[in-house]
Amino acid sequence: MSAILLGWNPQRWNWADYDEWVAQVRRHGTRRDTWSVGRHVNIAAGSDAWLLLQGKNRGLIGRAIVRSEPYKGRHYSDPEKTANYVEIDWLSLLPIPDRIPPVVLNAEAPGVRWDHVYGSGKSVPVESEAAVHALWERFGPQHEARDPSELPPGLFPEGAVRTIVVNRYERDPRARAACVERWGLACVACGLDFASVYGELGKGFIHVHHLTPVSQLGPDYQVDPIADLRPLCPNCHAMVHTQDPPIPPDELAARIRASRTSVGPRRTVPNRTSPSTCPDCGRPGVPIMYGEPGPEMIAAAEEGRIAIGGCVIYDGRPTWTCSQGHDWRVDESART
Ligand SMILES: [Zn+2]
Ligand SMILES: [Zn+2]
Ligand SMILES: [Zn+2]
């Protein structure tokens, strides 16, 4: 397998309906195109082709497969000249704000001289091909998580059902791990912990939500998994994305609390799934359980779902605690 780089400089080539192409490629999986490859003639059909956005906002932005040998055609900007072209099939294109910036490219595939690519058709060093694939897999196309929010039709008004586009930071396994390490595996909005409901099956399952829309991030943005990411269950994740920009998770948590205290049937929700955030440090809390701990309680405490409060039960005892050891009391009487 071989691979080439294609260049696109928006200052020199106005691809006015680029966003349309992004959407079509996403919908249909592919779209045929023709791209110039400058003077390069040694390009094999079947090669990978990577589109590099040039000019002031550089970054990797598209993936294609070359479908033809290079052929001569009239130059795209100067009818007096000829240029070499190849037929390509786009396989994925990123919206411009989601391009993978040079800082990531240089770190993940240092064998490619990303800053020295100007024309099209230059080949990717063989030893770097795998690294380019890997970085595209990690930072590239947004994957749509259809499962969590595609609700059965008929239950909700038209338009209420939407697809969450999970951005690349939400998919990045390292960022995800750091987020979960810090914030835990329970949903920060509703408190749902998959392992406690689904047992073994739910272990380790949680969505990770990126607080800032990708379109608002600068080109050299680096994710801070602790400041920028929060664990959310798929329901809460779908709910925060019903608005653009998304609803902040603490605001959603407040809405859940408000509706739980006011809506009748919700009173059956057990206390342990009610959310509570530490009033001192804002970290998510776990309920404190009092009484002689049985095996179930000990297991729950070991998994960090509850804290054991001991056998002394007194009025005004704290009902929640956070990972920093702050204790507080939430009046549960309104809920039960
Ligand atoms: Zn939730
Ligand atoms: Zn999200
Ligand atoms: Zn705290």
Mean pLDDT equals 80
User: Helical residue percent?
Assistant: 25-40%
**CATH class descriptor of the largest domain:** Alpha Beta
Major sheet, described briefly? Answer: 7 strands, mixed
CATH superfamily of the largest domain: ph1033 like domains
CATH topology of the largest domain: ph1033 like fold
The coarse silhouette is elongated
The number of strands is: 15
β-sheet strand percentage: 15-25%
Describe this entry's structure for a reader.
The protein is α+β, with helices and mostly antiparallel strands and 336 residues long. It folds into three domains: 3-139, ph1033 like domains (ph1033 like fold); 143-271, no CATH class; 276-334, no CATH class. 26% of the residues lie in helices and 22% in strands. A hairpin with a 7-residue loop joins strand 5 (71-74) and strand 6 (82-93). The longest helix is centred in the last third of the chain and has 14 residues, at 249-262. The termini are far apart. Residues 144-164 and 264-273 have low confidence and may be disordered. One zinc ion binds next to loops.
Q: Could you write a compact summary of the structure shown?
A:
With 336 residues, this protein is of the alpha+beta class. It has helices spanning 18-28, 102-108, 129-139, 146-149, 168-171, 173-183, 194-198, 225-228, 234-240, 249-262, 295-302, and strands spanning 3-8, 31-36, 48-53, 59-66, 71-74, 82-93, 122-123, 143-145, 164-166, 207-210, 229-232, 285-290, 307-310, 320-322, 327-328. A hairpin with a 4-residue loop joins strand 14 (320-322) and strand 15 (327-328).
